[in-house]
Amino acid sequence: CFGAEGRLAHKLFRDLFANYTSALRPVADTDQALNVTLEVTLSQIIDMDERNQVLTLYLWIRQEWTDAYLRWDPDAYGGLDAIRIPSSLVWRPDIILYNKADAQAPASASTNVVLRHDGAVRWDAPAITRSSCRVDVSAFPFDAQRCGLTFGSWTHSGHQLDVQPRGAAASLADFVENVEWRVLGMPARRRVLTYGCCSEPYPDVTFTLLLRRRAAAYVCNLLLPCVLISLLAPLAFHLPADSGEKVSLGVTVLLALTVFQLLLAESMPPAESVPLIGKYYMATMTMVTVSTALTILIMNLHYCGPSARPVPAWARALLMGRLARGLCVQERGESCGQSRPPESSPSPQPPDREAGPPAGPCREPRCLCHQEALLRHVATITNTFHRHRAAQRCHEDWKRLARVMDRFFLGIFFSMALVMSLLVLVQAL
C-alpha cells in the first residue's frame, strides 16, 4: 500500500513539473493580481541593541498563495490530495523585510512547501530578522518601545501581487518569555504606498511589536544604590565639624555617583533625550555638589577665630533665636525650644579701702604705694579676662550659628533627596 502511494507521488511530481517554470507568476491571467496571505509567529526576542537601535527576533513566517499551474484531480492519483516538495522547485513571492538592518544578503530558507490539489501552496519558514527600531529611552528604565516589521514585495507592485495579513495580529502562542522585555502585543496593519521611484502602488504589512521593559534588575543594580547614596549625602551636615570628615563624605558620594553615571552611559544610546534615571543622577550630583559647597562655608563659620567679628544682631535674633528653637538646637543643660539666657559680664570690683592694713613693709592702712600697684594689676587681669571671655563667647556664638545652619540644611537636603527618590520609584509601580 505504501509502495503504491510512493509510485503515485512520483507520477504526480513528474506530471506537475514536466512543463512547469518557477520564474514567472503562476496566474492564468497576467492582468490578475496574485493574493499572498502572510502570517507571522513570534518565537523569541534574541536581542534589543539600544545603542545601535537594532532588534533581533526569531520568527516563524507562513506564506500562502494559489499556484494556477500546480493542480490535479485527487481521484486520478489514488486520492492523493497533498504533497511536500522543496520550496526551490516552485515559484515563491519575493516578500522581504523592508527595514532590515543586517549587512548580509537575505538567504532563502531550505524548507519544504505543502502543495494541495487545488493549487494552494503553504510555505512555512523560520527566520532570524535584524530590523531597525527607533528606541526612545527618555523613560529608562521604565520605558516602552514600539518596533515595526514591514514586509512587502520588492519588485511586484500591487497590480501584480497583493499582500494580506492573516488575522489582526501576529501569533504569540509559541513565544518564549524574555527576561528583559514583556511583550504586550504585535498588531498587524496593511498599507498601500506609492514611492517616488514608481507610479504603481506597493502594498505591505507592518507588524508592530509592543514591548515594555522589566525594570526590576535596573532598579536593584542602578537605581536603588543611587537612592541610598543620595540619602547618605545630607548626613554630612550631621557630622561634627571637629571630625574632619564632612567634606570627605561629600566628595566620596560624588565620586560614587560619577561611577554609576559612567556605567549608565555605556549602555544607553547617544540621544538628545536624557533618560529618567540619567536626570535623577544629574539632580542628585548637583544636590551633593551644592551640599558640599555649603558644608565648606559652614565649616568656615565654625572655625572663626578670636579675631572674628561678633555675630550680627539680625543673625543672632533670627537664626540663633527663632530658627534654633524651631530646630531644637540647644546647648548643654537647655531643653528643646529654650534659648540660652544672656550672660552678664562680671564687672571689676575695686578693692575695699576700709579694709585692714595690707601686708607689707608699710604699716599704714592707706599707703598709696600698695593701692596704686594693686589697682594696676587687678585692672590688667580684669581686662585680659574680659578680652578672653569676649573672644571665647564670640567663638562659641559662631559655633552655635554653624550648628543651626547644619541642622537647617540637613532637613532641606534630606527632604529633597527623599522627594526625588520617591518620584523616581513611583514610576516603577
Automatic annotation (TrEMBL):
Entry keywords, A to Z: Calcium, Calcium channel, Calcium transport, Cell membrane, Disulfide bond, Glycoprotein, Ion channel, Ion transport, Ligand-gated ion channel, Membrane, Receptor, Signal, Synapse, Transmembrane, Transmembrane helix, Transport
Catalytic activity: Na(+)(in) = Na(+)(out); Ca(2+)(in) = Ca(2+)(out); K(+)(in) = K(+)(out); Mg(2+)(in) = Mg(2+)(out)
Region (Disordered): 333-360
All residue ranges annotated as the Neurotransmitter-gated ion-channel ligand-binding domain in the record: 10-214
Secretion signal, residue range per the UniProt entry: none
Pfam families listed in its UniProt record: Neur_chan_LBD, Neur_chan_memb
Domain of life: Eukaryota
Entry membrane topology: Multi-pass membrane protein
CDD domains the UniProt entry points to: LGIC_TM_cation
Gene Ontology molecular-function annotations: acetylcholine-gated monoatomic cation-selective channel activity; calcium channel activity; transmembrane signaling receptor activity
Residue spans crossing the bilayer: 215-237, 249-268, 280-299, 408-428
UniProt xrefs under SUPFAM superfamilies: Neurotransmitter-gated ion-channel transmembrane pore, Nicotinic receptor ligand binding domain-like
Transcription regulation keyword on record: no
Neurotransmitter-gated ion-channel transmembrane domain sequence ranges: 222-423
Entry's localization field: Synaptic cell membrane
PANTHER family registered for this protein in UniProt: NEUROTRANSMITTER GATED ION CHANNEL (PTHR18945)
Family label: Belongs to the ligand-gated ion channel (TC 1.A.9) family. Acetylcholine receptor (TC 1.A.9.1) subfamily. Alpha-10/CHRNA10 sub-subfamily.
Subunit structure: Forms homo- or heterooligomeric channels in conjunction with CHRNA10. The native outer hair cell receptor may be composed of CHRNA9:CHRNA10 heterooligomers. Found in the stoichiometric form (CHRNA9)2:(CHRNA10)3.
Name of the protein this chain belongs to: Neuronal acetylcholine receptor subunit alpha-10
Organism: Megaptera novaeangliae
Gene: chrna10
